[in-house]
Amino acid sequence: MGNIFSQIFFIPAPVLTEKNCPDQTGRVFIVTGGYVGVGYELCKILYAHNATVWVAGRSASKAEKAISSIKDASPSSNGRVEFLYLDLSDLKTIKPAVESFTAQQQRLDVLVNNAGVMFPPKGSVDAQGHDMQVGTNCLGPYLLYQLLLPLLTKTASTSPTASVRVTWAGSIAVHLAAPQPQGMIINDDGSPTDQGVKPNYGQTKVGNVFFAREFAKATPQTGVVHAAFNPGNLRTELQRHWTGPDSWIVDKLMLYPAVYGAYTELWTALTPELTPDKSGAYVYPWGRFGSLPAGVETSIKGESEGGTGVAAKFVEWCRKQTEAFA
């Protein structure tokens, strides 16, 4: 219970904020869902410190409004902020987005997989017919990362050690809402079983933890460092489908402004503490290393290590579901 409590109440003050963020001149970031909520607040901080920021998402109108606001807030910035059209709930949009990006940028320092969907109406599916949360929170980000990996690896080869990163959005749901104890229940083919809307959300957040840990194994070869993070309990558009008395109680007693989630993401993206040997780490609000549930760790370990190998099986299923779009 202590691990849950420490992510919700009496959280230590953020270490890295807009006040002490180092200069990001010459560095390039992609932030999915960067035009609202936590992603917007992160883009605002990065641009203010001279980064080139690509706001990735499916709504050009929301992006246009956000970009205008980001520029207005930091008129003296030497950075850039651009829109990158992609829809994580439609795999066929991702390769064209990556091709558009790589035609315009010669490097990518940090990919922030910030976007996600939580508790959509029961039966919601993505463009390829997968559960909406699985598609948007896992399959889309998986494919985006795989297609950007060559550029990330190239950037890492000429950049300071551990400065090129991919960060993956977890949640308190990893500890509270995912099926216990293993975090994800899979079918024989590696796909997550349908547990209902709320547990399915928890499973997708565990899926992002699996990505961080599985892909971290390649850090010695690629130079790309990974981490998953719980941004914190925040007031954002993510809760738009959440209704009922429990949502009111949580909103009044347990939610923080979205900018605090940006502090978690900023720390994960930039902290010098995330060294290659810590690739695959899990980050607690508002920027500190934390532990995962024991059952999730068992799912991450292979059978030869005394685990169940669930993580590797799920990642392989994601590969198979996305390979036709790569």
Instruction: Give the end-to-end Cα distance, rounded to a whole number of Å.
Output: 41 Å
Helix-strand string: HEHEHEHEHEHHHEHHEEHH
Low-confidence stretches: 238-242, 245-252
**Which class do the helix and strand fractions yield?**
alpha/beta
Q: If strands are numbered along the chain, what order do they take across the biggest sheet? A: 3-2-1-4-5-6-7-8
Count of β-strands: 8
Based on the coordinates given, report the CATH architecture: 3-Layer(aba) Sandwich
Q: Looking at this structure, what is the CATH superfamily?
A: NAD(P)-binding Rossmann-like Domain
Tell me the number of structural domains. 1
The global form is globular
Largest sheet: 8 strands, mixed
List the helices and strands and how they pair.
Layout: H1 2-8, E1 28-32, H2 37-48, E2 52-57, H3 60-73, E3 80-85, H4 94-104, E4 110-113, H5 132-156, E5 165-169, H6 173-176, H7 197-216, H8 219-222, E6 225-229, H9 245-254, H10 258-270, E7 281-284, E8 288-290, H11 294-300, H12 310-322
Helix pairs in contact: 2-3, 2-10, 4-5, 5-7, 5-12, 7-12
Structure in words:
It contains 12 helices and 8 strands. β4 (110-113), α5 and β5 (165-169) form a beta-alpha-beta unit. The chain is globular, with a radius of gyration of 18 Å. The longest helix has 25 residues, at 132-156. α2 (37-48) packs across α3 (60-73), α4 runs parallel beside α5 and α5 crosses α12 (310-322). The protein has a single domain (2-172, 197-292), classed as Rossmann fold, CATH 3.40.50.720. With 326 residues, it is of the alpha/beta class. The protein has an 8-stranded mixed β-sheet, with helices on both faces.
